[in-house]
Design a protein that fits this description.
- The complex is a heterodimer of chains A (196) and B (306).
- Chain A has a domain of 137 residues: 3-Layer(aba) Sandwich (Rossmann fold).
- Chain A is of the alpha/beta class.
- About 4% of the residues of chain A have low confidence.
- In chain A, 26% of the residues lie in helices and 24% in strands.
- With 306 residues, chain B is an alpha/beta fold.
- Chain B has two domains: 141 residues, Rossmann fold; 154 residues, Rossmann fold (3-Layer(aba) Sandwich), CATH 3.40.50.1370.
- Chain B has a five-stranded parallel sheet, with helices on one face.
- The model of chain B has no long low-confidence stretch (mean pLDDT 93).
- Classes of the chains: A alpha/beta (196), B alpha/beta (306).
- At the A-B interface, α3 of A face α1 and α11 of B.
Chain lengths: 196, 306
């Protein structure tokens, strides 16, 4: 039994890591606004749609998207939380992870269009786990994916339907999305190692 | 980092809270249509039971199966144990079969500790003699938390055959770790001599049930373990029931919010009357249901990671 590790892994090379701010608070707001508009456009008014945030940072993002959608077209999109820890394929490779909450949106997900919301799309393994978790919870009519950052390096045939920003990265770099609800600040940073 | 769960003392407040939090999340999942989770797929859990058990064995089996582990049930009856095989040889057999976790119940105190040194997998103590039963303490703490909202600051009375009770020992250890105040109550012959404030400042002893009842948030009744008694510890069953049994009149002395717990199996009419056992204050059935979530949490935390 071990304590869940913090998600950010620090690199232990000699030189200090370079930090680049990719999205500022205003940028992030615009990105969320744009995705909200795209959802409305692509889903024809977000009828029969629910947003499911993947913990940790997908949850406040899903809430923000719902409130922006409500502000633009006064549609109430139900928001839920989907923890995928128990469905991950890398559990045995790391120390035990703490479980996050799972809350179904009011009315459930059966026969509705589910939009999964996460902060960063990387290998695609989290989304794979989310799809497995979803099928145990019900049968949505369709599933879409919204992410703030797509950083490439997919290991599975998965793509996002709504992308805030595509950022080309090296595998060793870290994309850190900070949100006011959790981190006290709205910001997206690219943390990489200095070249030798 | 803990590999085995042998004693409630293996858990500090942080770890114990992690188990309870994990159990809370897992309990939410048990209300949905598909209860099975793929988390422990390919792992093998052996239930090694040298002593009779209903609740604990079924509960561990259900927990392991809900997490998709393969479960092998072993009971001493009908195995090579009846031909004289020792615990060590049985352990080596399990080891050779590649058990990732062994859930063991044994009449000898300390057997799980010995077992832990013989197998590579995790060992979970499911009750050893009169020593410990840590998952029962965890599910009791979980039940208190879900009924009363917290464990820290509660006053818990543990009543009855404390001397022979592994449930009592594990509960005292865990509840004091989590910040509760515990009073053990029973006839002097059934209270271990070393129990008292010297063991923990939050632990006290009383021989008078009626005096303590108005002050407690939780009263946990214990079964008198006749099968472990080779001496007469009290004059008669009737006298025991009259002084230490929980009946409706005694239950009325409890504060409005207080709950009545029993780890089971209970002897109705002895330590608890049927009216009390079936009352709204009683959490006895709830405890069994919570047992599955708590044991899922323990298995997940022991086997889920690297």
């Amino acid at each position: 039994m071990a304590f869940p590790q913090a998600a950010s892994s620090s690199t232990t090379s000699g030189s200090p890591p370079s930090v680049k701010v990719i999205l500022t608070e205003t940028d992030l707001q615009r990105v969320v606004d744009r995705i909200a508009h795209q959802i409305l456009e692509k889903t024809d008014g977000a009828d029969g749609t629910v947003l499911l945030g993947i913990p940790t940072r997908g949850v406040p993002l899903a809430r923000r998207l719902a409130s922006r959608i409500a502000a633009f077209e006064s549609v109430d999109v139900p928001v839920g939380v989907l923890d995928v820890t128990l469905y991950r394929d890398d559990l045995r490779l790391r120390a035990t992870r703490a479980l996050g909450p799972t809350e179904m949106p009011p009315g459930g997900i059966d026969g509705r269009r589910v939009i999964l919301v996460d902060d960063v799309l990387f290998s695609g393994r989290t989304v794979r786990a989310a799809l497995d978790a979803l099928s145990d919870l019900g049968r949505p009519s369709s599933v879409q994916l919204a992410v703030i950052v797509d950083r490439g390096h997919r290991e599975l045939p998965i793509r996002a339907d709504y992308v805030g920003k595509n950022i080309p990265t090296a595998r060793t770099e870290i994309v850190k999305v900070a949100l006011a609800e959790i981190d006290g600040i709205d910001e997206v940073k690219l943390i990489g190692e200095e070249t030798k | 980092m803990i590999k085995h769960l042998l004693s409630a003392a293996d858990l500090d407040a942080q770890h114990a809270t992690l188990v309870l939090d994990t159990a809370t999340e897992l309990a939410n999942l048990s209300s949905r249509e598909v209860k099975k989770l793929p988390t422990l797929r390919g792992r093998t859990v052996v239930n090694l039971f040298y002593e009779d058990s209903t609740r604990t064995r079924i509960s561990f089996e259900a927990a392991a199966k809900r997490l998709s582990a393969d479960v092998i049930n072993f009971s001493a009856k009908g195995s090579s144990v009846s031909k004289g095989e020792s615990l060590k040889d049985t352990a080596l057999t399990l080891q050779a079969m590649g058990a990732d976790a062994v859930v063991v119940r044994h009449p000898a105190s300390g057997a799980p500790h010995r077992l832990a040194s013989w197998v590579d997998g995790s060992v979970v103590n499911a009750g050893d003699g009169t020593h410990e039963h840590p998952t029962q303490a965890l599910l009791d703490a979980y039940t208190m938390r879900s009924r009363l909202g917290r464990v820290a600051g509660l006053h818990v009375a543990i009543v009855g055959d404390v001397l022979h009770s592994r449930v009592a020992r594990s509960n005292v250890l865990l509840l004091t770790t989590l910040g509760a105040k515990v009073t053990v109550i029973g006839p002097p012959t059934l209270i271990p001599v070393d129990v008292g404030p010297a063991l923990s400042p939050d632990l006290s002893v009383s021989y008078d049930l009626d005096a303590v009842l108005p002050d407690v948030d939780v009263v946990m009744m214990l079964r008198v373990q006749r099968e472990r008694m080779n001496d007469s510890y009290f004059p008669s069953t009737r006298e025991y029931a009259r002084r230490y049994g929980l009946d409706v009149a005694r239950m009325r002395r409890l504060p409005e919010h207080a709950i009545v717990m029993h780890p089971g199996p209970m002897v109705r009419g002895m330590e608890i009357t049927p009216e009390v056992a079936d009352s709204a204050r009683s959490t006895i059935v709830e405890q069994v249901a919570n047992g599955v979530s708590v044991r899922m949490a323990v298995l997940y935390l022991l086997l889920g990671g690297k």
